[in-house]
Structures are given as C-alpha cells and as structure tokens.
Design a protein that fits this description.
Strand content: 25-35%
Protein name: Amino acid synthesis family protein
Organism: Paracoccus alkanivorans
Pfam families: AA_synth
Distance between the termini: 39 Å
Shape: globular
Largest sheet: 7 strands, mixed
InterPro entries: AA_synth_put, BB2672
Structural class: alpha+beta
Number of strands: 7
Helix content: 10-25%
CATH topology: 60s Ribosomal Protein L30, Chain: A
Radius of gyration: 17 Å
C-alpha cells in the first residue's frame, strides 16, 4: 500500500461553562484532532483499498494519544466519535478507511470501552466542515452524551487530500436534562445500555 503522507494536524479544544443556564463549576471539555493527508487513490478508481487501513493505524494512535492528553487523561473521557472529509478527487469510500484505524485507536487508549464509535463522512471542497457525532464510550443509548463537534480546516481538504478526525468529550452536554438512560445506570453488557 502507499505511504501515509501527512501535510498537517489541527487540534481544537472547547471549554463549555454554560449554554444559557447556570455556570458549571467544571466545564465540559470537547476536543478534536484532524489529520490532513494525501489521498493516494485520488483521481482514479482503485478496486483494492482496504490494505491502507493498516497503514493508517499509527496515525490513529498518535492522534488519539494527543487528544487524550489534551483532555486530561483517559480516565476523564466519556464520549467519542470519528469522521472523514474527502477532497473532490476522491470518493466517499475512501473515508470509510478511517473506521478501524480511528475507532480502534481511541478504544485501545481508553481501554474497556463497550460502545461502537459513531462516525460521519463526506466528500467536500477546501474549507468543508463536518459534524462528527459523539456518544458515550460505554453505552450508545446514554442520551445525555448525544452530541457532535464541528471539525474542519480553512485550507483542506484539497482535491487530492483526506482529512481524518477524532473527537472526544469529558462528559454530558452542559445542562443535559432530556431524560433517557443516565451514565450512572449503564449496565455495560452490550455497548448499547
């Protein structure tokens, strides 16, 4: 498979104290890591691409580690998600190559997570943005952790690039009060409840 050629990374950290209600003593942290790489399949149809997932694993682990560190350590992480933005000379399927390297990197560093890592992907031009879905790391049905974080970069993805994203949070939405399964009621059996 081709080499992973990294142009740049972009990291973002939000500290959310309130959404119009009372100010929280401890802010919710929401962070993202975005890696802009050359798309080795841009401009042509390549029938065999899944081997590139193996080549992306080290990138996924580096990004996940930096993001965990940015948010204060693995014990603080409660939510996660991943996403892909593919430049115009690529195809949506190229974004699917991030599923295993991105998701398993976070799950490996966070240890003993049960829930599947939600994802989003799309093809877009330079400056495109992507809303990356977020759910609880151990139970996808925990409504307080249903969230998303917008990611993007002003000069990416270029037509021959891919932008791969990881997103993590330290807790539920600020002022969550929509009911449903609560984090303290997780059974941890199936990644759903």
């Amino acid at each position: 498979m081709p080499d992973v050629i990294l142009r740049k990374t972009v990291f973002s950290l939000e500290e959310i104290y309130h959404e119009g209600g009372p100010v929280a003593d401890t802010p919710l942290l929401r962070g993202s890591a975005l890696a802009i790489i050359r798309n080795p399949f841009a401009g042509r149809y390549e029938p065999e691409i899944k081997g590139f997932m193996e080549d992306l694993k080290p990138l996924g682990l580096r990004m996940a580690q930096r993001l965990v560190d940015l948010l204060g350590g693995p014990e603080r992480i409660e939510g996660y998600g991943k996403g892909s933005l593919i430049g115009e000379a690529g195809e949506l399927e190229h974004g699917a190559l991030w599923h295993a390297p991105g998701g398993y990197a976070m799950r490996q560093l966070l240890a003993d997570t049960k829930a599947i890592v939600p994802s989003a992907k799309k093809v877009g031009g330079v400056g495109a943005r992507l809303d990356v879905p977020i759910t609880h790391i151990n139970a996808a049905y925990v409504r307080s952790h249903f969230d998303s974080m917008e990611v993007g970069c002003n000069d990416a993805p270029r037509a021959d690039e891919m932008a791969f994203a990881l997103v993590m949070t330290t807790g539920p939405r600020i002022h969550s009060r929509s009911g449903g399964l609560e984090a303290w009621d997780i059974k941890g059996e199936d990644g759903l409840r």
